[in-house]
Structures are given as structure tokens and as C-alpha cells.
Specification:
By secondary structure, this protein is mainly α. Helix content is 79%, strand content 0%. It has 14 helices and no strands. The longest helix is centred in the first third of the chain and has 34 residues. The radius of gyration is 21 Å and the shape is globular.
């Protein structure tokens, strides 16, 4: 009996030690599945005969799913626990992957994107909270946040690169990437079964929309951060939706890996951008983000005008870094300055704005492409991004003196 008890205790300790890695893997693979379609959109266009506008609408459906999930289900893991919500997100991810694997028409793609959006919304909050509760290191207080950033944005970056490479070198480019991701998501479900629950007090779920509002005490800082981060997300959304079309129609590049590389660089840049906020004051971070968005908008518009690949890659990377800095500053502003009783509402509002900006401008660019063509639409969008960033930069210049960011 004692040997059995020791064995059970050793297994429990082993599961507890590996729990952060299991949660990070679940977080990562769920987000991987959300960007697999990115380099495949040109293939879907040819396979199902839809337009570039349809591509942007399909992408916006994903953002809609995220917003609905954040607003309606954002507090679910506080009520029923982190593990059930992460498992639900993985199941939805598997369902989305399966729908894409079997897709025979546009309707199935739309359903798959909506399921992927809901899975992302559930896992972002639950896995981030679970990692914060599982990784407690007094010597490295930011370790949990760093793991969450790279699981989140690393998943977004990996999904598009995996799909691009597999579709270029293997048969069945519209099936095999989904089979790989679906298999890994099933592995994630199995791994999560051994993760201990970190929520001690649970309550019956209450599914109702969260209020979206901003505490008056942080309204000015919040609006500037939300506009800057939202503008960066808008550019990320457009890049994700149409970069493959631009490479094919303007540069006549048929490599799906190359199309994936554009988005990979943007999301990788966003991960490192969030880390930069740890060494910059709030005002400096936001000013740098605005300058970065203006520069990246100029490079992206120049890429469209001159049909250049190198400036597209550089512009995508700079845009990602700038968006990451703005997101990191916005989260820091909320967590450090918002009253605790309104913090969850402010976070939900912030991310609802970001994901709305991720999807809606992409549809606008899709409509613009129908009227003006891809290159002109890209140039107009680049100018709009630069103007919005310049407005925030001028607002910063007119605001009061910079205040240092509170230490950990």
C-alpha cells in the first residue's frame, strides 16, 4: 500500500511540475489552428471560386467569433475553473480543424473560422490565468507573462508558417496542414487531463454579456493605447487576409511559404514588442509604437506601389513590433491604473476593440479592392494607418509630462 501511495504521490508531483508546459502547449496549439488558413486563402479562392472580398469576410468571421467569446464567455474560467475552459477551447479547435479538413464549400470555411474564433477567445483568458497561477517565481515575476505571450503569439506565428511550408512541399495542401494541427490538438486534450485545477472556489456558470466600459481614471491613457494597438491590429488583420493575394497577383510569387513568412514575421515581432514595454515608460512605449506604425505604413504602401518584397517583409515586422508595444502598454495601463473592481471590464473592452479592428478594416479593404484594385487599396489603407498613428502621437505631445511605469 505504501508503495502505491508513493507512486501516486510521485505521479501527482510530476503532473504538477509539468502542468505549466502542458497548459502552454494547449494555449499554443489552439492559436496555431487559427492562422493555418492564412497562406492557403489563394488556394481556397481557386478551389471554391470566391473573390478577394470573400477572403476578407471569412477572416472577419474569425475576429467576430473572438469578440463574441470574449464578451459572453470571458469570465467563464473564473466560475467553473481553468482546466474545463481550456479543454473546451481545445475541443472547439479540434472541431474547427475537422471542418476545414472536410471542407467542400465556403459555408464550411465560415463555420470553421467561427469555431476557431470561439476557441481562441476561451483559451486566451483561461490559459493566461492558469499560467499565472501555476508559474510562481519570486525571482522572476514576469516569467508567467512571458510564457503566455510566446504561447499566444508564437502559436499565431507558427500556424501560418506550418501551413505555408507543408502546402509547398507535401501533397494535399488543403488537407494535410489540418490533419497535422488536428492531431496535435488531440495531444493537447490528452495532456490537459493531468493538469491540476488552479481555481479553488468555483460557482455555477452564468453566461451573459460582460459590460464593456472604461474607468474614467484611465480613459485618456486607455483611448490612446486602444487606438494605437487597434490600428496595429488592423494592419495585422489586413496583412493576414491579403498578403497571399498580394504576393500572387502583384509579385507573381506562388510560394505559400513566402506568404506565410510575411505573417510569421509580423506576429513574431508582436511578441517581442510586448516584451519591450518592460524597459520603456508608458509614454515612450506609445510614442515608439506610433512612430513604428507610421514607418511600417509607409513601407507597406511603398511595397504596393513598387511591387517590392523586401519592404513588405520589413514593414510587416515593424508593424508587428509596434502593435506588440501598444498592446503591452495598454495591458500595463489597465492592470496598474484601473480600479480592481473594474479591471476585468476594462480588459474585455480593450481586447474587444482590438479584435474588432482586426476584422472590420480587413472587410473594408476587401471592398476597396473591388473598386480600386489591390495595390491602390493597400496604399490607401497604409495612409489611413499612418494618419491614425500620427493623431495619437500629436495627442501624446499635447499631454502632460511622462510618468515612469511602476516597478514590479
Amino acid at each position: 500500500m505504501s508503495n502505491v501511495s508513493r507512486a501516486d504521490g510521485g505521479t501527482a508531483r510530476s503532473s504538477s511540475r509539468s502542468a505549466p508546459a502542458r497548459v502552454a502547449f494547449a494555449f499554443w496549439i489552439t492559436l496555431v489552428g487559427t492562422t493555418v488558413p492564412t497562406p492557403l486563402y489563394p488556394l481556397y479562392e481557386m478551389e471554391f471560386g470566391f473573390s478577394s472580398l470573400t477572403v476578407t469576410v471569412v477572416y472577419a468571421v474569425y475576429a467576430l467569433g473572438v469578440v463574441i467569446g470574449l464578451v459572453v464567455l470571458g469570465r467563464l474560467s473564473d466560475q467553473i475553473g481553468r482546466r474545463p475552459v481550456i479543454l473546451t477551447a481545445l475541443v472547439l479547435s479540434v472541431a474547427a480543424d475537422a471542418v476545414f479538413l472536410a471542407a467542400v464549400d465556403l459555408a464550411m470555411i465560415v463555420v470553421g473560422r467561427l469555431l476557431a474564433g470561439l476557441s481562441a477567445a476561451l483559451v486566451i483568458g483561461a490559459a493566461t490565468a492558469a499560467l499565472a497561477e501555476l508559474i510562481k517565481s519570486p525571482r522572476h515575476p514576469r516569467r508567467a507573462a512571458t510564457v503566455a505571450i510566446f504561447a499566444n503569439l508564437g502559436g499565431l506565428a507558427t500556424g501560418t508558417l506550418l501551413a505555408g511550408v507543408v502546402s509547398d512541399v507535401a501533397p494535399e495542401p488543403l488537407r494535410l496542414p489540418w490533419a497535422i494541427v488536428l492531431t496535435l490538438a488531440v495531444v493537447g486534450i490528452i495532456a490537459m487531463l493531468g493538469v491540476p485545477e488552479t481555481v479553488a472556489r468555483r460557482s455555477p456558470p452564468t453566461v451573459r454579456p460582460q459590460r464593456l466600459r472604461v474607468p474614467p481614471t484611465i480613459r485618456g491613457d486607455f483611448v490612446r493605447a486602444a487606438i494605437t494597438a487597434g490600428t496595429g491590429f488592423a494592419a495585422l488583420g489586413v496583412l493576414t487576409a491579403v498578403s497571399g493575394l498580394f504576393l500572387g497577383m502583384v509579385l507573381h510569387e506562388t510560394s505559400h511559404t513566402l506568404a506565410a513568412l510575411v505573417v510569421f514575421l509580423a506576429f513574431t515581432g508582436a511578441a517581442f514588442g510586448q516584451l519591450l514595454t518592460r524597459v520603456l515608460s508608458s509614454r515612450t512605449a506609445l510614442a515608439c509604437a506610433c512612430v513604428g506604425l507610421i514607418v511600417s505604413a509607409g513601407l507597406l504602401a511603398f511595397s504596393m506601389w513598387m511591387a517590392l518584397l523586401v519592404t513588405l517583409l520589413i514593414g510587416a515586422t515593424i508593424n508587428g513590433v509596434a502593435a506588440g508595444v501598444a498592446v503591452g502598454d495598454g495591458i500595463a495601463t489597465i492592470t496598474m491604473k484601473a480600479p480592481p473592481e473594474h479591471r476585468a471590464e476594462a480588459v474585455s473592452t480593450f481586447f474587444a476593440i482590438l479584435f474588432t479592428m482586426l476584422g472590420v478594416p480587413a472587410v473594408g479593404v476587401g471592398l476597396l479592392i473591388q473598386v480600386t484594385g489591390l495595390r491602390t487599396a493597400g496604399e490607401i489603407f497604409g495612409a489611413a494607418v499612418a494618419v491614425l498613428a500620427l493623431v495619437v502621437l500629436l495627442s501624446l505631445a499635447r499631454s502632460g509630462p511622462a510618468r515612469p511605469r511602476p516597478a514590479d
